[in-house]
Write a structure and sequence with these properties.
By secondary structure, the chain is of the alpha/beta class. 41% of the residues lie in helices and 11% in strands. The longest helix has 17 residues.
Length: 440
C-alpha cells in the first residue's frame, strides 16, 4: 500500500511515525493543552515555526497565507519549512522533541474497540498524552464542513484543521472520446463492463493504469461501492479482526475478481508504467478512462490545456446504482499545534487567519475545499453530486494489523494479482487470508 501512493502523500492520513517515549514526555509536559486566539495583531510577536510535508500546490497555498499573515501580524516572523514526504516523519520527530514546531501536521485516529491496542497510532498516543492543543469550540472551526470535522475528531475533540480533501475512488474520463462514441457515464458494474467492451470493439483502449502507483487505488475504488457506507466498511474491518470474515470468500473474493477484470481492460504491460506516463497518456487520448485522485486535477488541466476535456465518476463496482453514488476520499494535510509549541499565541492567530482566508490557500493548493461555500476549481462543481456528503475511503477506516503479513496490509492483495504479481484471483486472495491469520 505504501508503494502504491507515496507520490500522492496519503501516507500522512494514517498518522505519522514517531518515536513516542521521550516525545510524548516532551509534549505532554508543556504548560497547557489548550490555547486562545489573541484578539489584536499587536498582541502577537516573535518567531512562528511551521513545518509541513512538501507538494507544489500546497506549498504555494501556504506561501499565499503566510504572505497575508505577515502583512497583518507585522511583529511575527514566519519560518515556513516544507519537507519531502519521505523525510518528514524524521524531521517532525526531531523538531517536536525540541519544541521547535508551532504549527505542524497531525492525524490522530481513534482505535476501534475491535483492534488490538498494539496497533494504535503514535499521533493518537500523543493526543491522549496532551501533546496537541485542544481546538474544540474554537469559532474558526465552524467555517469548515461539519461532516468533515466530524470525521477527523479524536475521541470527540478537535485537534486538527483540515486543509482540503482529495477523492480517489473514481474514474477520470475523456469527454471527447465518450462523445465520439455516444457513451454515457456508467452507473452499475454491468454498465461499466459493457462500456469497456464497446470501446474495445471500436479499437479504443478502455482503461489506463499507472503500475504500482495506481493499480491498488482501483482496489480502494471497488471497495467504496461494494461496501458503500462507513458502517459497511467498519463491519468488514470488525469482521476481519474478529476472524468471522475471510479475505478469500464472498464479497472479499469478488473484489479481487473485479480488480482482475479491470487489469484485463488496461493497456498491455501497464505494470511497468509509472504515474507520470499514465497521466501523459491520458492527456494524449491513449485510453478513455483511468482510476486517479483529484490531487491530479490541476496537472491534468495544465498539461491538457484546451485539448483535454475530462470528467470524473465513481467506479460503479456494485450492480445497484445507489451503491455507486458517492466518491470516497480523505482529508489532506491536517494542521495542529503541539502543546509544547514555543509561540502558541502566534500559532493560534495563524490558524484563525488560515481559516478566515482559506480561499487564499485553496486557490493555489487545488484541493477539493474543506470549507462550505468556498468556490474553487470549477472541476469540483462538476462532481458536487458525488461529494455532497463526505464519504471516507477504505484506507482511512482500515487499520492494518502490525502482526499480519505483507499480503494482508491493505488487505486486498492487488500487488500479488497478475500481471502486477504472478497469482490468479483465488491464489492472491488465499495469500491475503494466510497473512491475515498470521496476526492471530
Amino acid at each position: 500500500m505504501a508503494t502504491m501512493r507515496t507520490t500522492r502523500r496519503s501516507l500522512l492520513a494514517g498518522g505519522l511515525a514517531l518515536s513516542t517515549g521521550a516525545l510524548i514526555s516532551a509534549c505532554s509536559n508543556s504548560s497547557s493543552g489548550t490555547a486562545t486566539v489573541p484578539s489584536q495583531p499587536d498582541q502577537v510577536s516573535g518567531d512562528l515555526n511551521i513545518l509541513v510535508s512538501s507538494a507544489t500546490g500546497s506549498d504555494a497555498g501556504f506561501k499565499a497565507v503566510n504572505d497575508g499573515f505577515a502583512k497583518k501580524y507585522t511583529g511575527v516572523k514566519v519560518n515556513f519549512t516544507s519537507i519531502p514526504n519521505e523525510d518528514y516523519n524524521q524531521a517532525r520527530t526531531a523538531r517536536l522533541s525540541a519544541g521547535s514546531i508551532d504549527v505542524g501536521l497531525a492525524f490522530p485516529v481513534e482505535l476501534p474497540s475491535y483492534v488490538p491496542a498494539s496497533n494504535e497510532g503514535d499521533d493518537a498516543r500523543l493526543a491522549d498524552a496532551g501533546g496537541f492543543v485542544d481546538l474544540t469550540g474554537q469559532p474558526f472551526l465552524a467555517k469548515f464542513n461539519q461532516s468533515v470535522m466530524d470525521k477527523i475528531k479524536y475521541k470527540g475533540k478537535s485537534y486538527t484543521v483540515p486543509t482540503g480533501l482529495s477523492y480517489y475512488t473514481g474514474m477520470m474520463y475523456n469527454k471527447a472520446i465518450f462523445s465520439k462514441y455516444s457513451a454515457s457515464v456508467p452507473t452499475t458494474w454491468d454498465d461499466f463492463l459493457s462500456l469497456c467492451e464497446m470501446f474495445k470493439g471500436k479499437g479504443v483502449q478502455p482503461v489506463g493504469i499507472g503500475g504500482k502507483d495506481t493499480a491498488g487505488i482501483n482496489a480502494l475504488a471497488l471497495c467504496q461501492s461494494l461496501y458503500p457506507t462507513a458502517d459497511d466498511k467498519q463491519n468488514l474491518a470488525k469482521g476481519l479482526y474478529g476472524y468471522t470474515v475471510t479475505l478469500n470468500t464472498g464479497t472479499q473474493l469478488q473484489l479481487l475478481q473485479q480488480l482482475s477484470q479491470i487489469y484485463g481492460l488496461a493497456e498491455p504491460n501497464f505494470a511497468g508504467v509509472n504515474y507520470a506516463t499514465m497521466t501523459s497518456d491520458f492527456i494524449n487520448g491513449k485510453f478513455a478512462m483511468m482510476n486517479d485522485g483529484t490531487w491530479n486535477v490541476t496537472s491534468l488541466q495544465q498539461g491538457g490545456g484546451s485539448k483535454l476535456d475530462f470528467g470524473y465518476f465513481p467506479l460503479p463496482a456494485s450492480s445497484t446504482a445507489g451503491d455507486n453514488a458517492f466518491l470516497g476520499g480523505k482529508v489532506e494535510l491536517s494542521l495542529a499545534v503541539p502543546s509544547n509549541a514555543k509561540n502558541q499565541p502566534a500559532a493560534m492567530a495563524w490558524l484563525q487567519f488560515f481559516s478566515d482566508n482559506y480561499k487564499l490557500f485553496n486557490d493555489k493548493a487545488g484541493f477539493a475545499p474543506s470549507q462550505t461555500g468556498v468556490t474553487s476549481n470549477a472541476f469540483y462543481s462538476s462532481i458536487a453530486d458525488y461529494t455532497s456528503t463526505f464519504q471516507p475511503a477504505w484506507d482511512t477506516i482500515w487499520i492494518p494489523d502490525t502482526k499480519a503479513g505483507p499480503n494482508a496490509q491493505v488487505p486486498w492483495n492487488w500487488a500479488g494479482l497478475k500481471p502486477m504479481g504472478n497469482l490468479d484471483v483465488q491464489a492472491a486472495a488465499d495469500a491475503s487470508e494466510k497473512d491475515w491469520e498470521a496476526g492471530k
